[in-house]
């Protein structure tokens, strides 16, 4: 066990805006992401010394728009290895905002530990006036050091709020309160060292998840439905050998007739198809005989298309056949 009077938290840096740098402090765009190392990120937050003992690692230095399955796998494996150590009480991951919700959900379903895992990020580069990264990092470490965070799955600490990895999504291109959990709201808040959870995660995750890191990942892509959509994209993906397609449908996951026919043909060729929605909130209902059962498609529930892709990747890699049960469960 960790014998220090403070919790010992591992901070894993992957790049992103929080590690961004620009030549003009008045600018919050046009910066280079992921160039500031983890040691400098930590040096900018001296208050961390009163919250936790820090173990720091630079895992990657990328703009999160370039996140990959290989890095997801490596990150999940490293997090799990660290959490198995008696002297590590939790993990914080600094990340870019663009794909943070996808990485968080992937870890939520693959990391096998009750110890806290908290992702954080920033909307302004580290060199900007009123940079939000230092406070977000302090709050993330504070959450990871809290005993109340144990068993809650992977969390996102951002702008004083605590979100579940399953529910959170980015909702603004510029605002410092860029993340929301549209359907169910935040789990709690963190402010001035105080961590309070107002609800708990109910769907399975981490130690209760049936998924794990795969040696090989299937090809799963996303297509969108819109006015006058053609079947070109679906047919091209099927010809390329994809194993799964997620549809960002209109409304309740509805699809243009052209795409519906193309996806029906894809299902007959063994491609797994999940209906999600391009709308920012709400759920996609399983339509039974009226749609899903007739077409052989799966409804995504409240998962947005990008998280639905994560779950479909994991399910297909694990050779799951009961996909609707998987999406209803997770």
Q: What do these coordinates show?
A:
By secondary structure, this protein is of the alpha/beta class. The chain has two domains: 8-208, L-asparaginase, N-terminal domain (Rossmann fold); 220-329, Rossmann fold (3-Layer(aba) Sandwich), CATH 3.40.50.40. The protein is 27% helix and 20% strand. The strands form three sheets. Strands 2-1-3-4-5-6-9-10 form an eight-stranded mixed sheet. The protein has a four-stranded parallel sheet with strand order 11-12-13-14, sandwiched between helices. It has a two-stranded antiparallel ribbon with strand order 7-8. Helix 3 (100-110) packs parallel to helix 8 (305-317). The mean pLDDT is 95.
Topology diagram in text:
Layout (H helix, E strand, L loop, with lengths): L7 E8 L22 H6 L9 E10 L6 H15 L6 E5 L5 H11 L6 E4 L12 H12 L9 E5 L2 E4 L4 E2 L8 E2 L7 E4 L2 E4 L22 E5 L7 H9 L3 E6 L7 H12 L3 E6 L14 H4 L2 E2 L5 H13 L5 H7 L1
Parallel strand pairs: 1-2, 1-3, 3-4, 4-5, 11-12, 12-13, 13-14
Antiparallel strand pairs: 5-6, 6-9, 7-8, 9-10
CATH topology of the largest domain: Rossmann fold
Which percent band covers the strand fraction? 15-25%
- Residues in helices, as a percent range: 25-40%
Work out the radius of gyration: 20 Å
* Morphology call: globular
| Helical stretch tally | 9
CATH superfamily of the largest domain: L-asparaginase, N-terminal domain
Contiguous runs where pLDDT drops below 50 for at least 5 residues: none
């Amino acid at each position: 066990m960790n014998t220090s009077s403070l919790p010992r938290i591992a901070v894993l840096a992957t790049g992103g805006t929080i590690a961004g740098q620009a030549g003009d402090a008045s600018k919050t765009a046009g910066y280079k992401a992921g160039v500031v190392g983890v040691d400098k990120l930590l040096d900018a937050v001296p208050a961390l010394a009163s919250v936790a003992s820090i173990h720091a690692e630079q895992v990657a230095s990328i703009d999160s728009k370039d996140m990959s399955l290989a890095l997801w796998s490596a990150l999940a494996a490293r997090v799990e290895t660290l959490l198995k150590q008696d002297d590590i009480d939790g993990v914080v991951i600094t990340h870019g905002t663009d794909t943070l919700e996808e990485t968080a959900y992937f870890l939520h379903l693959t990391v096998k530990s009750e110890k806290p895992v908290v992702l954080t990020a920033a909307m302004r580069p580290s060199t900007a006036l009123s940079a939000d990264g230092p406070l977000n990092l302090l709050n993330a470490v504070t959450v990871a050091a809290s005993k109340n965070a144990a068993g809650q799955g992977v969390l996102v600490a951002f702008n004083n709020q605590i979100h579940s990895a399953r529910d959170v999504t980015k909702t603004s291109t510029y605002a410092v309160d860029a993340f929301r959990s549209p359907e169910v709201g935040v789990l709690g808040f963190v402010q001035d060292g105080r961590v309070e959870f107002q609800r708990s995660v109910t769907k399975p995750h981490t130690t209760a998840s049936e998924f794990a890191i795969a040696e090989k990942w299937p090809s799963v892509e996303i297509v969108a439905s819109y006015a006058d959509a053609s079947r070109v994209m679906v047919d091209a993906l099927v010809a390329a050998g994809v194993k799964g397609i997620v549809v960002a449908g209109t409304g309740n996951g509805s699809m243009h007739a052209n795409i519906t026919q193309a996806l029906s043909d894809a299902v007959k060729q063994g491609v797994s198809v999940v209906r999600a929605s391009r709308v920012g909130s709400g759920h996609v209902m399983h339509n039974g005989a009226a749609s899903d059962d007739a077409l052989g498609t799966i409804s995504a529930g409240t998962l947005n298309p990008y998280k639905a892709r994560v779950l479909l990747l994991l399910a297909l890699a694990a050779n799951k056949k009961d996909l609707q049960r998987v999406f209803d469960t997770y």
